[in-house]
Amino acid sequence: MKKKILIFLSLIVFWFAFGPIKSAQAQKVYQIGTDVTYPPFEFANKNNKYVGIDIDIMKAIAKEEGFKVQIKPVGFNAAVQSMEAGQLDGVIAGMMMTPERKAKFDFSQPYFDTGIIMAVGKNSKIKNFEQLRGKKVALKTGTAAALYANSIKKKYGFKTVTFDDSNNMYQDVVTKNSVACFEDKPVMQYAINQGTPLKIPVKPANKSTYGFAVRKGHNQELLAKFDAGLKKIKANGTYDKIKNKYLGTKHHKVKPATEDRSFWGLIKQNQDALLGGLGETVWLTVAAIFFATIFGIIVGLLGVVPNKFCNGLSTTIIYIFRGLPLLVLALFIYTGIPSLSGQKIPAFLAGIITLTLNEGAYIAAFVKGGIDAVDSGQMEAARSLGLPFGKAMRRVILPQGIKIMIPSFINQFIITLKDTSILSVIGILELTQTGKIIIARNLEGFKVWAIIALIYLIIITLLTWLSNWVKRRIQI
Fold this sequence. Notes:
single chain, alpha/beta, D-Maltodextrin-Binding Protein, domain 2, MetI-like fold, 6-stranded mixed sheet, 3-stranded parallel sheet, 13 strands, 61% helix, cell membrane
């Protein structure tokens, strides 16, 4: 009987050890990066679900070839860097197949023909590149259109300014800060059809094609599946249906969606997305401040113990992580470390680590400062009474120092809340990233950012009231 039970338990252990592995291999899901603001190729619809030519093509191919994909809308730059770091399996984001990119990535067969155009304000008199001399032109970071514009700017004598998303680039031209922008033809046509007050005065230049990209020498099986699936959806008509759905045909243009564009209308239509982004922001803030507080207290205490090595270590940690810009730290953790280690770091975890190190360094500084602010005679008196250093610190110094630190803790909570917006660069879907996604669909940049700003102000006002209440309670 005991032998049978032992065999049964061994089978259960074997199944748990090896069964899930086989299942996971059979159900492999490819992580595919894409842009967040590149309609009609990728954007969030009125239900805040990601759609577009690229998304639909990727899903149609996955269905044909029998594999699964998880779309990661992280932004073009973040997607490319994440793929280089091994965080993503591939990128489909209206990526032109330029010689420079072919040297770094492996591409599929072309899936879309395109060209680069120049767009100007609706009432602009600019009709050619020669009229750009001495003027400013807006570009989107990392795009083939930006590369093309930079390659001709010396010849035509114009200056450039870059933006991370298309809407801000368009708005720079609309507000006349720049006289023109460079963009892919179908993307610009879609924006104009949606009501963006720009026009295209020149024919497309530098004609090229879009391709699905994977890391050089990696995921060749996925690349082969993409090519095979692309051939199938072109043959069965699915490809043409997807194109016509977003771009229409020569005889039928896609009409812009009619929706309430007032402030209240935008809030009602996007309330789920806004609440989701707000929830992610609050969760990031709470988790980060929790770990940053632990980290900061430990590092701060190291700075006040009677040990030169500990003091030096504390000073060095504070110096490094307060000195690094948060954006650089986030990109280093999310893309730099995986490039060296080969281990993926989820975006949310990378965000928590980034905030913990950065905010923790500031907390360490005011923990150290709060303890130093307590009269040195207090420690001397405690030690003269026979209390060891640790007990004197715990019983005498810290209770006084904490009163000095508490308002700073709450202020740091407010700063951490605001700093979460920077993490949109690594694709975390917090409040700022949510705003970008909404704008990609409706191009109502001013109104959406005003709503986002109001949400931040309400939360920060509540936290400020809390800070003032705490100050009064502890009578500082």
